[in-house]
Amino acid sequence: MPDSTCAPSLVNETDLLAGNLPAGSLAGLSIRQLDETIRRAVQEGQHQGFSGNCAAFALVLAGTLGEDAELACFDSGEHYEYVDHVAVRWRRRYFDASGQVSRRVLSRGFGALGLCMDRSDLSVLRLVDTTGGGMLSRELDCAAMRRDLERWASALGFC
User: Fold this and answer.
1) Pairwise CA distance, residues 39 & 26, whole Å
2) Is the model more confident about 80 or about 18?
3) Alpha-carbon distance 95 to 88, whole Å?
4) Residues 88-135: tens digit of each pLDDT
5) Is the pLDDT of residue 15 over 70?
6) According to the per-residue pLDDT averaged within each range, which of 24-28, 69-73, 144-148 is highest?
7) Distance between CA atoms of 66 and 16, rounded to whole angstroms?
8) Between the ranges 11-15, 24-28, 47-51, where is the mean pLDDT highest?
9) Distance, C-alpha 69 to centroid of its chain
10) In terms of DSSP bridges, do strands 99-101 and 70-75 run parallel, antiparallel, or are they unpaired?
């Protein structure tokens, strides 16, 4: 029987931008379960969590994980106008659209861990370069990403 913490929640772009994220629907998953859920949801839903969409993806993911999640900004220092990547830190582990990823891999690919922000701090959307892809509505449909994360966690029997 599915756990109520995995019950699908409705969230749209307006809710995301207003900070009205229902929190914690995937908070009961293990690290391995979350990793598999992210990988399946991104692959099957053809979601883009990079090229300017990493911050939006991180906001959606952090919203599903609840209070323990925070936004982790990685930056090489090469660009003064934006950070290179935003991931989620949860239970002392890091996650992005590729699933669980080590801090070392993130640092090598995107630069040093800089500031960490509250999971619902929308100012993170202004910290990323959006010239490489569309922001939010073009490449990352926030409502669909959240729905797919919750659907895959349930379909995989994790909740």
Assistant:
1) 14
2) 80
3) 5
4) 999 999 999 999 999 999 999 999 998 788 777 777 777 776 555 544
5) no
6) 69-73
7) 14
8) 24-28
9) 10
10) unpaired
The SS3 call for residue 152 is helix
| 81 compared with 88, residue with greater pLDDT | 88
pTM reported for the whole predicted model: 0.80
Q: What is the amino acid identity at position 66?
A: G
DSSP SS3 for 153: helix
Provide the token pair at 133.
């892809």
* Alpha-carbon distances of 39 from 4, 6, 73, 76, 78, rounded to whole Å: 22, 17, 21, 26, 29
Q: Beta-strand (E) ranges in 76-135?
A: 85-90, 93-96, 99-101, 112-118
Q: Is the dihedral of CA 14, 17, 23, 26 positive or negative?
A: positive
Determine the Cα–Cα distance for residues 149 and 155; give it in Å rounded to an integer.
10
Cβ atoms 110, 74 nearer than 8 A: yes
Lay out the sheet containing 85-90: strands in order across.
Answer: 99-101, 93-96, 85-90, 70-75, 112-118
**Euclidean distance between CA atoms 147 and 159, whole angstroms:** 14
